[in-house]
Automatic annotation (TrEMBL):
It is an enzyme of class 3 (hydrolase). It comes from the Bacteria. Coiled coil: none annotated. GO terms for biological process: nucleobase-containing compound metabolic process. Residues 1-20 are annotated as: Disordered. It comes from Nocardioides soli. GO terms for molecular function: 3'-5' exonuclease activity; nucleic acid binding; nucleotide binding; ribonuclease D activity. This is Ribonuclease D. Keywords: Hydrolase.
Length: 415
């Protein structure tokens, strides 16, 4: 084998520059962290670890911070009633996060709100990187590898093992440098203003309220009949109440598959329920009386109270139904999607970032009444703004939507 044929060695594994800091769990230590961060300079890299897959709540069980001139800090938010010293220190500073929508809700819950932010994942999307995970961006842009073997551990564990803490600290170790490189690339590509608008919009992010979350039970499509659907709903809600009370993830009580099997079989007593093949889980027998009561509620429910298979929402129907319900709207959607896809490739921006798919569907299902291009253009722009589209998105996509609306109507007239 020649030297040219030798495999390229993997990039070096990233290690902590300043060693592993202690976990902050006392008021004096928290005050020291606040003072150090306030004395630092530049943006603050922030990350949070939750116990997804283990706990019902989405609270933060560890908060990591790093700022130039201050260093890296690991704060245990469970140890404090208030993080006010940290809140004061962060006031006015730009936050750097990766995938901000994942961490902002749990940071907001402990009183931390960004004055400004930079999302490295979203920056990567706007720049057209095909993969925007933190480890991928770090390897591509910084030439180092991030160990990810502790990404799915139970962060509610106390005390937290040192290898987990090192993994957590490394996530903020890279963010300041990564933000600098991505910021330069956004400026060079002419996308910096787009990013600023996106980041400003993210500051007000709130997770969407869950409505009829039971309908997302895995395997619910196999359930036949409205009464069986009611059984899925009653079992799901009973499990959710138990999970909330115990603060454990619902799937650790009984899995979705057990709910679906019980709803299909509709057993009427404890013995037949526990004898149902496939009804299992840690809480299957422990909470058997709760499951039986849920199934009885479904069995005794009035017909009028049974859930429907396809509930009516406040938005447009699913796209596959458009051709039957409104052929003109279906043509609008098809043309707009094709044009947005082409523009997406041209700009190297994912189509869903160019315009939120829900905004696209809502606008094209019920567009403004005017069919005069001069009047239609500002009307479409206003409609998109009302949904929450950012200015850069409106400027780039309004002409596409206007064209789709007018040409779909023209085809109708020609027919």
């Amino acid at each position: 084998m020649s030297d040219d044929d030798e495999p390229t060695p993997p990039p070096p594994l990233l290690t902590l520059r300043d060693g592993l800091p202690p976990v902050v769990q006392t008021e004096p230590a928290l005050a020291d962290v606040g003072a150090a961060i306030a004395a630092g300079t530049g943006p603050v890299a922030i990350d949070a670890e939750r116990a997804s897959g283990y706990r019902y709540s989405s609270r933060a069980y560890l908060i990591q911070l790093r700022r130039e001139g201050a260093g890296t800090f690991l704060v245990d938010p469970i140890a404090f009633e208030s993080l006010e010293p940290l809140e004061r220190a962060l006031d006015g500073a730009e936050w750097i996060l990766h995938a901000a929508t994942q961490d902002l809700p749990c940071l907001t819950a402990v009183g931390l709100h960004p004055s400004g932010l930079f999302d490295t994942e979203l920056a990567g999307r706007l720049l057209g990187y095909p993969k925007v995970g933190l480890a991928t961006l770090v390897e591509e842009l910084l030439g180092s590898r991030l160990a990810k073997e502790h990404s799915a551990v139970d962060w509610s564990t106390r005390p937290l093992p040192a290898p987990w803490l090192e993994y957590a600290a490394l996530d903020v170790e890279v963010l300041v440098e990564l933000r600098g490189l991505l910021g330069e690339k956004l400026e060079e590509s002419g996308k910096a203003e787009w990013a600023r608008q996106e980041f400003d919009h993210l500051r007000g992010f709130e997770p969407a309220a869950r409505t009829e979350a039971w309908r997302r039970t895995s395997g619910v499509h196999r359930v036949r009949g409205r009464r069986a659907l009611a059984a899925v709903r009653e079992l799901w809600e009973a499990r959710d109440q138990i999970a909330a009370q115990r603060d454990v993830t619902p799937g650790r009580i009984i899995p979705d598959s057990a709910i679906v099997i019980a709803a299909q079989a509709l057993p009427t007593d404890r013995e037949s329920l526990l004898g149902t093949k496939g009804f299992h889980g840690r809480g299957a027998e422990r909470y058997a009386s709760r499951w039986v009561a849920a199934l009885q509620r479904a069995a005794e429910m009035d017909e009028a109270d049974l859930p429907t298979r396809n509930p009516r929402g406040n938005g447009p129907p699913v796209p596959r139904a458009w051709a039957e319900k409104d052929p003109v709207a279906a043509r609008r959607l098809s043309r707009a999607r094709e044009a947005i896809s082409a523009r997406s490739e041209e700009l190297s921006v994912p189509a869903e970032n160019l315009l939120t798919p829900d905004y696209l569907r809502r606008t094209l299902w019920t567009p403004p009444a005017s069919r005069d291009a001069v009047q239609l253009t500002p009307a479409v722009a206003d409609q998109l703004a009302g949904y929450g589209a950012r200015r850069w998105q409106i400027e780039l996509t309004t002409p596409i939507l206007v064209d789709a609306i007018l040409t779909a109507e023209d085809d109708t007239d020609a027919g």
